[in-house]
Amino acid sequence: MSELISITVGALLEKVAKMYPDDQAVKYTDRPFNMTWRQFDDEVNRIAKGFLAMGIRKGDHVAIWATNVPEWLLTLFATAKIGAVLVTVNTNYKVFELEYLLRQSDSKALVMIKGFKDADYVGIVNELCPTLKDFKPGEYDNPMLPFLKDVVYVGEGPAPAGMYAWDDLRQMGDAVPEEEFRAVFDSIDPQEVVNMQYTSGTTGFPKGVMLTHFNIVNNGKCIGDCMRFSHDDKLCICVPFFHCFGLVLAVMAALTHATSMVPIETYRPTEVLKALQNEECTAVHGVPTMFIAMLEHPTFYEYKFPRLRTGIMAGSPCPIKVMQLVVDKMGMREITITYGQTEASPACTMTTTEDSLDLRVATVGRAMPHVETKIVDPETGETLPPYQQGEFCARGYNVMRGYYKMEEATRQAIDEDGWLHTGDLAMVDENGYYKITGRIKDMIIRGGENIYPKEIEEFLYTHPLVRDVQVVGVPSKQYGEEIMACVIPRAWEDGLDEEEIKRAVRENMARHKVPKYVLFMDQFPMTASGKIQKFKLREMGIEKFGLQDDAAVETA
Question: The pTM is what?
């Protein structure tokens, strides 16, 4: 087991740049951005000085609202080098969510692109800050957002009124003496917070998870170790940077092993397939739906992946069948699964390339190095023996500093002994391999029977006409909850119907696990990070099947 390292994100970048100055660090396939580690580090330093010139100081919060553009990476490392905290903004946010985040996080600056999909970021910011256009860049004043002073625009053409252009930021850095920059750089401690990510949460307002340099560097290192990463590897990054999957499992895992990065600005199956082939990538990360989209793409068999060997499938429960297809059809014989959550930086368990295929497709691996794990009874807190289902808990270097300005929520998540309570249901075998069986809150209780959706989902994935499936509980006056299967068929013309789904479950599983409702659709509602929003599926089921009265029944 390798030792943990005490180093800041910025110092680690400089170390890698000195070791491999002329090796490729970052290459984009859709724009002229191809830098060696030395070139990338030099550009980061220039941007870091730009933030200092702008007035960003150690401990200040800088929010970034952008897709996987090069400026996102540069901002990440630049803020880390001056001791600022990067606040990552979900690319799907609208005005209400952005206002909450900027206010709750006390962000002093916002780096943003023009927009994403149907969202006009510039329009949203001007709606939130209607007087911004009346101020010179850097002088914005709004009592509703008392900390926000600077907005930096990343995009073509001149910056909107009141905003700095990215080139302005670069040029401002030229006036900052090297000695001033180095003094700040040398003052940063690895135990200080470097990143804040807001949990999506299904109840209450999002919470800002505070992660330190030590948290994310070491989690990235341990992840890369499990994948046998080296500077000879090349990682295609199509998961979003704003999420731990992109920032830690991808960027930090690459940085700690001097692995070249090939980012994709926004996930598109063809762009990923092209990058895997043309750049001869050895690894790619994704949530299950991303891999399904590539495998099911009509041009999939036109591409070859001569060096592809590994990657991570994570972010949501990984269907065993999809894992097997990725191994067989994409050549990813060393694919791994990681389990965790943002509050754990994020990885708690992981499979390794040495694990058997059976273990790599059927479990989420064993505890990460230097991380303690256990299964407890959600009611009593008692530690449970192997093969008994309970709540997954973790303790170690990877546990967050806490939620920003939410002490009570922090105490609820992390007990007095330092154990993080995940809210996930799991069980462990006698060899320490874990299986995630669902969320405590996702469990369906039908007439007193506890039903775990993942079990039904795994079975239905084996049906030849089912492309993807999610199982949720919907309200029932009689039983409290009923089971609804949400199904994406392989082909609508194949004649897959409600009765066939019910028959398949009825003939292979206990009767109380047969879905009462089946909802066919062509895609699932998802977050920007690729997680399926089960609460929206539940809402769709209530509407589709007229369950509003059932939903209105009050329960204890």
Answer: 0.84
